[in-house]
Design brief:
This protein is α/β, with parallel strands linked by helices and 575 residues long. Helix content is 26%, strand content 22%. A seven-stranded parallel beta sheet has the order 2-3-1-4-5-6-7, with helices on both faces. Helix 1 (56-65) runs parallel beside helix 4 (231-249), helix 5 (255-265) crosses helix 6 and helix 11 crosses helix 12 (566-574).
Length: 575
Amino acid sequence: MGQEYYWKRVTVCVIDDGLEWTNRDIKDNYCPEGSWDLNDDDSDPMPEGGNGKNEHGTRCAGEIAAAANDFCGVGVAFSSRIAGLRALDGTMTDSLEATAFNLNMNINDIYSCSWGPEDDGKTVEGPHYLAMKAIKHGIDMGRGGYGSIFVVASGNGGSNDDNCNFDGYASSIYTITIGAVTESGGLPFYAEECPAMLGVTFSSGSKRNFDIVTSDWTQMDGSGCTRHHTGTSAAAPLAAGMIALMLEVRPCLTWRDIQYIFVLTGIKVNLLHQNIWEKNAAGLWHSNFHGFGIISAWRLVSVAKAWQSVPWLTTYTSPQEEFERQIPCFPGELVVNISVSKEDADSYGLFIVEYVQVKMTLSHPYRGHLVIMLQSPAGTVSTLTHVRPKDNSTEGLNNWIFTSVKFWGEEPCGTWSLIILDSSSVLSEHGTFKSWSLILHGTPLTSEQFQDKIRFVQEAYSGKYLDENISFPCPPPSPSLDVMQPLTDKTLKIITLVGFFAFFMAVYETFEYMFCYKDEKKKRVNALQIVQRQVDGSNNSDTYHLLENDDNSIVDQDNIADNVPMTEIDSVKSG
């Protein structure tokens, strides 16, 4: 691809354990204004060797933007700029994550995150409140309104039978979740499965397979180049680099446009195991191991060049169904339904679905025994989670959200069925299903228009739009507001302390007024009564002029008005 296609240099930011920007492969493309060290709170994201091996971020950055020189390798988007946010070399807090997701988002276009919760086959965790808000803020306001792009790795818990639907970063509708395949397109031993995955790229496999060659740090005897970058940590940055190529030819692609192009351009792999692929009612093939397939830089860029943006995102959330239903043991199953009417869908402008989510609460003595599936009105079945043998938690699920992209392009109307299987043959205590709701994310794009998109994509594979060197006008982004940075821990503590002080003073003043001004309040009430009598008896010649206070003092009624505010006298008269 020639330089004539570049409109701007795209900046990719790696959120990781640091970035050795002095590396020969990286220094020419390094973006200091997009970088920061959140662990030491300074402008230099250089990794430190004292706390262990912190080469990870540098390796991921090399895959994306290593310069085209004679040292080591070359990045996928070797003309892009690369920034680093050092955040993983220390305690990761909610506010630190939130800061990382929005930091310098007026400069950084894409955020690459090759990390997540523990891949131990028993953890259920996602971004907390501030981090979730920051991701949504980036989607709404990043890239001048077109939306920051968040690329995350699906995880390396395959050997622990983990499922990336228990990883709230991977199951978010605002991220692009990427898994891995070996050089031959096979399934690596560490690969997790889940229906939230959009696609896969190449990475390591068994000892017989090659690993990824990329830049490396030079500390702790590092050479600055490695042949052994592995896992989904190596897969996600390759996707980030491909997105940078897409934005170079069409910078006004929205975050949803990029998701659509990933969905429609994936290539089926691992064809020796056809049973892991299933076609949905919209004609798209999906696998819980491979998403919509391996992503191709040629396909992505060829389609991106002439892509016309999809309409806005719309979301329908069903009323929450609440009950106490026993989950039967195998071979029994629990089936519950939610129906979506055409009137409900049309009122939201929801013509086809994209991401489908299930929010549920249940209790169970052995959470990992559960298999949960969702069936669409068209009959497509998506396995939301499989058995996790190491997950022996008794905590169940509390408003946890499972995500599937398998129904992409299908129509929303009809009955959606949730199916829960308990793989335990005998249990002394059954699980209880308590509540669920269905969340349908989609667009006003009709089924016919969606099929037109599919035909356009297939036509673009020829490269005709690149060869013709044509350009299309960019639609304006959605209106944007001033960029707001998430609050730091220090600021939150100050706000909390001020709040406690204000609350204490309010309580103190309330009790003081209730118990310490009793006499003053009685005098005020008595004074107002005197004024009332004066008003009522103004035409009575027998009006008393001397009154006795509660403290036995004598008050001259004719002069009492001198001690009563005019507003109170007026209010008495008007009453």
